[in-house]
Amino acid sequence: MAKLSIVVSHRLSQDEALKRIKTLLSEVKIQFADKISDLREEWNDNTGKFSFSAMGFAVSGILTVNPSAVELSGNLPFAVSFFKGKIESTIRERAETLLN
């Protein structure tokens, strides 16, 4: 498995950043319903664990919404590790747009 680690700074309140992240996850469920399944999320204060299957591959990770940054760490299946750079840049761009 390849490790994924992304940190995106923000200037929002921690509560607003958390609200936006949770909204994004809800939108992803709808937008990519044909590509992902079994999307699960579990929140404990500002930390959320997530998991889903994408094209038959299991993906999981942790999102932490801090006062000035959102941290995402996760595991990518070996089969998609070749696309790690593209995956990271896409997530980073989407998060920066969402949090600014």
Task: Write a brief structural summary.
With 100 residues, this protein is an alpha+beta fold. The chain has helices at 14-31, 84-99, and strands at residues 2-9, 36-44, 47-54, 57-65, 69-76.
Description of the structure:
The protein is an alpha+beta fold. The chain has one domain (2-99): Alpha-D-Glucose-1,6-Bisphosphate, Chain A, domain 4 (2-Layer Sandwich). The protein is built from two helices and five strands, in the order βαββββα. Strands 1-5-4-3-2 form a five-stranded antiparallel sheet, with helices on one face. Strand 4 and strand 5 form a beta hairpin. The radius of gyration is 13 Å and the shape is globular.
- How would you classify the helix and strand content by structural class? alpha+beta
Order of helices and strands: EHEEEEH
End-to-end C-alpha gap? 31 Å
With strands numbered from the N-terminus, the spatial order across the biggest sheet is 1-5-4-3-2
Shape: globular
CATH homologous superfamily name? START domain
Q: So, CATH architecture?
A: 2-Layer Sandwich
Top CATH class: Alpha Beta
Strand content: 35-45%
Structural domain count: 1
Number of helices: 2
User: Fraction of residues in helices?
Assistant: 25-40%
Overall mean pLDDT stands at 90
Largest sheet: 5 strands, antiparallel
Q: What's the total number of strands?
A: 5
| The CATH topology | Alpha-D-Glucose-1,6-Bisphosphate, Chain A, domain 4
From the alpha carbons, calculate the radius of gyration and give it in angstroms.
13 Å
Which regions are unreliable across 5 or more consecutive residues at pLDDT < 50? none
Protein name: Polyhydroxyalkanoic acid system protein
InterPro entries: PHA_gran_rgn
Pfam families: PHA_gran_rgn (PF09650)
Organism: Candidatus Nomurabacteria bacterium GW2011_GWA1_35_8
